[in-house]
Write the structure tokens for this entry.
Amino acid sequence: MTRLRWPRRRFLAAALLGPLASACSGRRGAARRDPGGVLTVSTEQQASWVRNFNPLLAPGNIRWPTRAGIYEPLFIYDTMGGKVVPWLSSGFTWGPDKRTLHCTLRPGVTWSDGQPFTADDVVFTFEILQRHKALDLFGVWSFLDDVRATGPDALVFSLKKQYVPGLVYLGHQPIVPRHVWRDVPDPVTFTNERPVATGPFTEITVFQNQVYELGRNPRYWQPGKPALRGLRFPAYPGNDQATLALLHGEVDWAGNFVPDVERIFVARDPAHHHYWFPLVGGTVMLYPNAARAPLSDERVRKAISMSIDRALLVKVAMYGYTRAADATGLHDGYARFRSPEAAAAGDWISHDMERAGRLLDEAGYPRRADGLRASADGAPLTLDVHVVTGWSDWIRAAQIIAQGLRALGVTSAARAYDFSAFFEKLQKGAFDLSLGWSSDEPTPYHFYRDLMGTATLRPLGEPAARNWHRFGSEEADALLAAFEGAADEREEMRLSHALERLFATRAPVIPLFPNPSWAAFNTRHFEGFPSAQDPYAKPSPYSAPECLLVLTRITPRGA
């Protein structure tokens, strides 16, 4: 097998760090002028911005603050604290049969245009999802029977069945104003260029191809918040450009990968340059498209997994910020649920080229005389790996994966696309293999529902909100159904372990490593960011709606 050798690894690191280090040395000590209370954030990475603030569309199609900054949910699940934080809702209670959820809204909330926020807005939002299946990203109408207002500040969700895990799907849904959206002819294509919302930042003060800015909501319901005057978003096409801006003091809060962060970022200004990368940012997966042969074959998926040198991925692509995934696929947000026995049962997670080759032989893809693997009709086995242009860590990971596949006799290359094109292909199943992320919601139920349940299955070509790889298991459905009515945490644990064993047996997707919640901060002008010492929320700006906890906590330094 051909491997990346140590000199090659050094070359990769030097190739990336060289431009950053030289650029930094030329501007050492340079500081951005006082931003005047406007926080500059690096989240999405695209060459230019498209003005779309429709909160009912999937993240990636819309600008980042839309679902957690402009619009808001009923409540927020705090990953680091393991608790539900009331937001637009001041509280909720389950009925005795756990098939009705009574929700009380926070009094005194208004929309940014001054109209009152009421239960009718919540009902209207969920009715939109019912009429437009493409907008029901969490599949709430698969378990929701009805939602009705019982007063201006009260409503009841009626469920078709017991479905306690559905609480987070209902609670995290961004709510839109009925008095504005009732006149929208097609909510699926609506770009909502001038949003009316309840969030802390609702005013679009600047929108250009290369930068946009949001001003704070003058009618925000939290007294004295936000302390920030606004948010600013420059367009950076990739990690390298975003990192340079961070190093030069042009970014205050970055959610992108930073190579060798201690040396090139912290050491530059130890008093103000900080980071926190807890492993709660989901799991980075290699998604095999199970709707396409031969990836529908479990043996092929496992062979691909065994061709991947995860230790090399972690060292070269991820700079040692994480660790190799195990066969449960679970990240640290689910640490208390992880079963060591299930993790050990999935031996396909180990790097074993000999066994990988035998599995492909069994699946009907032997090596030809030229060393390439082919099907019975002589067609070479070709599996390209899709990745996002500019995501330098993932690009290196995709290259290492493709190299391992080529060593196995599979024709493979890393194919990079601009994020919008990448995400469209991912949603529609227009790929063989694609890097991607996982959900990181309160329990493994949500994680495995996305990866093995049939409720989120969509035909090829139809956008899928979660199940991008088109895999469904009736055995998983039965376990998930039992989880939906679990009476206590012990029962949840038992069912989680059963789902972990099933995942480790079937290999529906290929876990690579737990993803850090990327967060680098420049505290020269702002303070109050999450940290290991004050872990009040996930630190990455990507974490909607949890980043609302951060946006309403950050203050200008000295304010």
